[in-house]
Design a protein that fits this description.
There is one protein chain. With 383 residues, this protein is an alpha+beta fold. Among the domains are: 147 residues, no CATH class; 98 residues, no CATH class. Helix 3 crosses helix 11, helix 5 packs across helix 11 and helix 6 runs parallel beside helix 11. It is elongated.
């Protein structure tokens, strides 16, 4: 059998060591590290994500059990005190920069979205990560609660989190939305939490299409009505002008599309500045927004972003950014191998084989056993 490095070592090849060290030199604070390098920190924290470790003690014991296999990872003995100190004091921006490096690599292999148009399509949303205020006093969100928010702009080409921001729990969704630097010609879809009519004007001026839902109390004037195909569930397709007290800030005409879901019977009203695509396509685009909800559900179930290994803000941010890097590593492996397995199946396989010496491709696409002469045991059974 040909020699193979561990599965974890093969995964880490996606992060060139010289690139990582260059980023680590830029994002460094204080004196030179002696007992633990930033690379050791990354390997330890990434293995915690992949192996599902829930505490520093659990992580360190797991690494000690694999001590003979850590040398080729560039990793020495990891202690709780050293790892906790580096997580607390060294800037988490290193892993944010690494995230963008990995994102660029993933985008070269990512498949397109499932719509006919070629424009970039993003789903924008945020999720709240609750924290215990007594343990994380810096995370004050409400009167007696602590929380942080993870804001994501999900690229439907490969379901990659292209835009990621981590803020305190008080930050409103639209505040992060306004900070997005979307390319001209792209399309973004979001729910009613992001409705800001002045932002609509800004998006339209930059040549960016948007799709959202109309608020119930919105006031508008119908300018034009178009015929719709009711067999597709469409109930209306209108051009409107907002005329309420706050909606007067919207100076552009909007397209209002009514749609009734044939499965649930619920009626939805969408607003967009795109008059080119078919009304049914606009409804399908908003339906695809559910992918960002599935993304949040997946990372909360499969990565460690709810139970933290440190209590400082920097330690929490470090763990979340490492989790985002691990997600991109998994996505890259899936794109490169063209595996039919889901990301959840892939991470389950990796958890069971993280320190095994076997080819990663063989793990993702196991070959059927080769046919040959029966073994003595098989011959005995046949007899």
């Amino acid at each position: 059998m040909a020699h193979s490095s561990t599965v974890l070592a093969q995964m880490l090849k996606l992060v060139p060591r010289h690139e990582f060290d260059s980023l680590a030199a830029v994002h460094h604070s204080g004196r030179k590290l002696r007992k633990m390098s930033r690379w050791s920190q990354f390997v330890a924290m990434a293995s915690a994500q992949l192996a599902g470790r829930t505490s520093l003690r659990d992580l360190v014991h797991n690494l000690e059990a694999q001590l003979t296999k850590l040398y080729h990872l560039g990793l020495g003995r990891v202690t709780r005190s050293s790892l906790a100190r580096v997580n607390e004091n060294q800037p988490h921006e290193l892993f944010e920069a690494l995230f963008h490096k990995l994102l660029a690599r993933c985008q070269t292999l990512a498949p397109g979205h499932n719509f006919r148009f070629k424009n970039k399509l993003y789903s924008l949303d945020a999720t709240t990560i609750d924290l215990c205020l007594a343990v994380f006093p810096w995370s004050h969100s409400q009167q007696s609660k602590g929380a942080i928010k993870l804001h994501v702009g999900l690229d439907h080409a490969g379901m990659l989190p292209e835009f990621v921001a981590i803020t305190d729990g008080k930050t409103h969704d639209i505040t992060a939305g306004r900070a997005l630097q979307l390319a001209k010609g792209s399309m973004v879809v979001f729910d009613k939490a992001y409705i800001d009519y002045q932002w609509f004007n800004s998006l339209n001026e930059r040549g960016i299409s948007f799709v959202t839902r109309q608020k119930r109390n919105a006031r508008y004037e119908v300018i034009e009505r178009r015929v719709v195909d009711k067999k597709q569930g469409l109930t209306s397709d209108q051009t409107i002008q907002m005329n309420g007290s706050k909606s007067t800030r919207c100076t552009i005409p909007l397209r209002r599309i009514g749609y009734r879901d044939p499965e649930t019977g619920k009626h939805f009203v969408f607003l967009t500045n795109n008059f080119r695509l078919a009304a049914g396509t606009i409804a399908d685009i908003y339906k695809a927004r559910w992918q960002v909800e599935l993304f949040f559900k997946w990372i909360k179930q499969n990565l460690k972003i709810k139970a933290f290994l440190g209590t400082s803000k920097n330690a929490v941010m470090t763990q979340i950014w490492v989790a985002m890097c691990v997600y991109l590593m998994l996505a890259y492996i899936k794109f490169l191998s063209k595996s039919a397995l889901s990301l959840q199946q892939i991470i389950r396989l990796l958890q069971l084989n993280l320190f095994e010496r076997r080819p990663l491709q063989e793990l993702l696409e196991p070959r059927p056993p080769s046919e040959g002469p029966p073994t003595p045991q098989q011959s005995l059974m046949l007899a």
